[in-house]
Amino acid sequence: MQIIDLRAEDQDVVEQAAELLVVGFRDHAPAAWPDMTAALEEVQEACAAGKIARVALDLAGKAVGWIGGNSRYGGNVWELHPLVVHPAHQRQGIGRALVIDLEALVRARGGLTITLGTDDEANMTSLSGRDLYPNVLEQAIAIRNLRGHPYEFYQQLGYVITGVLPDANGFGRPDIFMSKRVANG
After folding, report:
1. What is the pLDDT of residues 112-132, one digit of tens each?
2. Which long-range contacts (CB under 8 A, 24 or more apart) does 149-158 make?
3. Distance (Å, whole) CA 56 – CA 171
4. Which of helix, strand or coil describes residue 180?
5. According to the model, what pLDDT value does residue 185 have?
6. pLDDT digits (tens, 9 = 90+) for 27-50
7. Which of 1, 78, 126, 143 is the residue whose CA sits 20 to 30 A from 13?
8. Residues 149, 118: contact at Cβ < 8 Å?
């Protein structure tokens, strides 16, 4: 596997990256990128100047995963958005490699922290399907992974839950915010 820049002018790889969004989010967040049109718009936006877009290619040169990063707060904070690995290639270290690669690039650009939102639209955690008010933070502290939600993947990479936005995707469908300091020192 090799990780390279995802460039808007490389139409074949852009289309493969868009297909990854449609396939990769189909089961747990189908409204995110329901079709190739929406997915292609996301990939093109991720390739814009000043952003980071990286793609993992297998030995045959086919895209098996990709990651994006957007600068926030004057470059101090970067948002990881999106991260997707083809379901057939998950649990092989590709997502981990993409996140580590993004962290190194953010650090090289002077970024201090990476943040991300990981939605629960499919009742995958104990935070989903319920009213989180008024004790949102207490419930976030007691979160349980019910069906393989990716927040634990990010925790393994050193990310911590920094907040929850109840009802972000409709009643009982929160967004879980996670962050990690990547600066040295």
Report:
1. 999 999 999 999 999 999 999
2. 149/118, 149/120, 149/124, 149/125, 150/118, 151/118, 151/125, 151/176, 151/178, 153/95, 154/99, 154/116, 154/118, 154/178, 154/180, 157/96, 157/99, 157/100
3. 35
4. strand
5. 67
6. 777 778 889 999 999 999 999 999
7. 78
8. yes
Sign of the CA dihedral running 13, 16, 21, 25: negative
For residues 86 and 27, give the distance between their C-alpha atoms in angstroms, rounded to a whole number: 12
Q: Looking at per-residue confidence, does 25 or 67 come out higher?
A: 67
Between CA 123 and CA 131 the distance in angstroms is: 13
Amino acid at 115: T
User: What's the first-to-final CA gap in the chain, in angstroms?
Assistant: 31
Amino acid at position 110, single letter: G
pTM attached to this predicted model: 0.95
**For tokens 């981990």, what's the residue?**
96
Sheet containing 52-57: which strands, arranged edge to edge?
Answer: 2-5, 52-57, 63-72, 77-85, 113-119, 175-181, 160-165
The reply to whether omega before 87 is within 30° of 0 (cis) is no
> What does the block give as tokens for 169?
């995707």
The reported pLDDT for the residue numbered 30 is 73
